[in-house]
Amino acid sequence: MDILKVHQTEPRSFRLVGELDLSGLGCLRPIEAVASSPGDIHLDLTRLRFVDGAGLDRLADLARQLGRTGDAGRVVVLRPPRSVERLLKRVSSSENLDNLVVVRLSSVVDDSLEISEPARDLNQILVSDYPPEAVCKLIAELAVSEVPGAESACVAIRSDGDVAFAASSDHAAERVQTASIELGEGPAIDTVRSGQRHLSHSLVTEQRWPQFTNAAMYLGIASVLSEPLPVRGTTIGALTVLSARENAFGESACQGIARLASRGAVVIANAVLYWQSTELAGQLREALESRAVIDQAKGILMARDHISADEAFAMMLKASQRSNQKVRDIAQRLVAEINPIPAEKGLS
Amino acid sequence: MKRSFPADCTSLFPVRQFVRDSAVGVDLRPQELDDIVLAVSDACAVLLRHSLDTVIVLSWEAGREEILITVEDRGEIRVWAEESRIDEEEISLISDLVDDVDVTTAPDTGRTLIRMQKHFGTKGRP
Fold first, then answer.
1. What spatial distance separates the first Cα and last Cα of chain B, rounded to whole Å?
2. Which of B17, B30, B37 is facing A220, going by the closest CB pair?
3. Is 70 exceeded by the pLDDT of residue A118?
4. What mean pLDDT comes out for the span A182-197?
5. If you write DSSP's letter for every residue of B37-83 in order, what string do you get?
6. Looking at beta carbons, which residues of chain B come within 8 Å of A244?
7. Looking at beta carbons, which residues of chain A come within 8 Å of B12?
8. Residues of chain B with pLDDT under 50
9. Domains, chain B, ordered by start
10. Alpha-carbon distance B44 to nearest alpha carbon in chain A (angstroms)
11. CA atoms lying within 13 Å on the CB side of residue B50
12. ipTM at complex level
């Protein structure tokens, strides 16, 4: 289960979201890579809920690694939760790691409804750079960072009258979403169908989706908030945030997810349109090019073997079936090898 | 309460969730709960590093002023060797977090049990 997300906010700054334990050490590789060069590293732990002994050791290793670069580089840990702060101070003092610095700021979590930095970034996405799945994943990841209480998130999209999984912030959310779709019930499905927000403060007492609730609780989820993705009066999908805690989503979470969903929906819709258009244009171009090269090849065969256009095409078709290649590829090869094609190596 | 988990590090999160859920209704201070969650998660991690078993079993027993938690494997397919023995250093963090920790390994089967006890309420507070 992917319970830790590491966001690189600047070249040497990272934000850790979720829980850091033995299973998530691999997620720290980008930070370790940076620690091999001198300079401070900033770790924003505002949304890190838990760290275990292995995680602590790895954070201490970063400080040791920086110390070995010969520079006075520090690991500056920003705004850790009290439980994590206590452990960091313990390891820092017991191992004399002077360059492991904990900075506790007065404001722990910024729940304000001001437009956040990543949400602004969403507005600057060029849909030509991201296929729709990547846009959906980005929005799911933004939801984890931006919606207070969210630990993981996923996006479902309306597809041919049904609801399909699009992307998730992590494997846990993907499992919850796919289970919901397989079961045919859950908050995301109802949100897509009704265009209304669905919030469950506690799956323990939830009655609306009994099968989904069982599956989600088995996967460690205790509360769910699903928001419609609206575009011009229709709902194209749902953005869902999940938490292992009951009552994780309050008013600020509802407002935060609504704002992100309304922005995200437009970007997703634009990405879908752009990539559908691009795909269609590509198919048309390919069809035209195929047609041109097949016509050339037909001309070559007609001239060489004194046959009709239909016979030339039938010849290529037969060669295509025999060699399990596309007619276009056969034609292209013929055109490329225009001089001369010996009769015994011909296509018949 | 008793629950089995796959002996895999991806179980650590569900293990912690089990502990958090089990602690609902127990009069623990936030720091005491944090300590227990970390101690149990680390105990499971220690066991996972040493055990070749496919399952770990966690049990939770809450009294009026103390909690007893055990983490164990079944030892059935454990390849027992001296170097696989859990040493003191590995459980030093756990020792700091709970009032009592004890590791026992059955010499015949290799079955390992980590037992942790945490006092709270008037018994655990100065």
1. 29
2. B17
3. no
4. 93
5. HHHHHHHHHHHHHH---SEEEEEEEE-SSEEEEEEEE--TT----GG
6. 13, 17, 20
7. 21-23, 52
8. 78, 80-83
9. 2-124 (3.30.565.10)
10. 10
11. 29
12. 0.87
